[in-house]
Design goal:
This protein folds into 2 domains: 2-55, no CATH class; 65-237, MetI-like (MetI-like fold, Orthogonal Bundle), CATH 1.10.3720. Helix content is 76%, strand content 0%. The chain is built from 11 helices and no strands. The longest helix has 35 residues, at 2-36. It starts with a helix and ends with a helix.
Length: 268
């Protein structure tokens, strides 16, 4: 009898156990980054935890040029997110709401940048800038253009998925209540699509902030945070890099949790 109850309990919770194991495996590198942010190594080439310290957090800009690279990545990520989100949302609405010649081909072409290796995209953009005579002026704006281009596909796919699951009868009901198309869009459609737009924007920002391969081809003299980490790895990564990584993870986690709490309160 006891064995049967134990077997049922295991069968009822086996999915939970597997999910916890998978999540633990996925978050293990993040936990290591958090741990190493409090490390006081004797050498930059030593990647073992040796002594606990708060100095990395009290002075995260101790390494020359690191905070400047973080600010540069934040600027590029913000601008790339704004432009990619606006353009991608418009494209998603056009693909879902309208029928036009070449619509199927456009949908197919949207997926190609996502399937293309970043090495190919980075080298192609470099060849494009060189052919346009901009090889000598690579920098902030070339990185921004490149990031907008490869973030655009992810925004379109995310917003398109949200629009595909939207019930059009809500808009029809609003128009039955004497709302015109513009009022129905802003008061009914846009609030329903807004969570998908926010998700697309967060995805675009994370992709832009984290990108190294495309940026490496088109950065010129501009150093972003991933470029700084790559350059530092050749002579030893400073522990303050782990502080920046931990701070970005905490901010992302706070945004996700706050979004979940807001949705629960609205549901109630």
């Amino acid at each position: 009898m006891v064995l049967q109850r134990a077997g049922r309990w295991v069968a009822d919770h086996v999915i939970l156990f597997i999910a916890l194991l998978v999540l633990g495996y996925m978050f293990l590198p993040i936990f290591f980054v958090i741990l190493m942010s409090f490390n006081d190594p004797t050498s930059r080439l030593n990647y073992e935890f040796q002594a606990f310290t708060w100095s990395n957090w009290t002075d995260p800009c101790a390494e020359a040029g690191m905070c400047a690279s973080v600010v540069k990545s934040l600027e590029i990520g913000f601008l790339a997110t704004v432009f990619a989100t606006v353009l991608g949302t418009l494209v998603a609405f056009a693909l879902v709401r309208h029928r036009f010649r070449g619509r199927a081909a456009t949908s197919l072409l949207i997926f190609l940048p996502m399937a293309t290796p970043e090495v190919v995209m980075g080298s192609s953009l470099l060849a494009l800038f060189t052919a346009a005579g901009l090889a000598g002026s690579l920098g902030f704006w070339s990185i921004l253009v490149a990031h907008i281009m490869f973030c655009l596909s992810f925004v379109v796919v995310t917003v398109k998925a949200r629009l595909a699951g939207l019930d059009y009868r809500y808009e029809q009901a609003a128009m039955d209540l004497y709302a015109n198309e513009w009022q129905a869009f802003w008061r009914v459609t846009f609030p329903l699509v807004f969570p998908g737009i926010v998700a697309a924007a967060l995805l675009a920002f994370s992709l832009s902030f984290d990108d190294f391969i495309v940026t490496n081809f088109n950065h010129g003299n501009t150093i972003t945070f991933p470029m700084f980490v790559w350059g530092s790895a050749q002579r030893g990564i400073p522990p303050q890099v782990n502080v920046i990584g931990t701070a970005m993870f905490v901010v992302a986690l706070a945004l996700v949790l706050s979004s979940g709490l807001i949705q629960r309160r609205r549901a109630r």
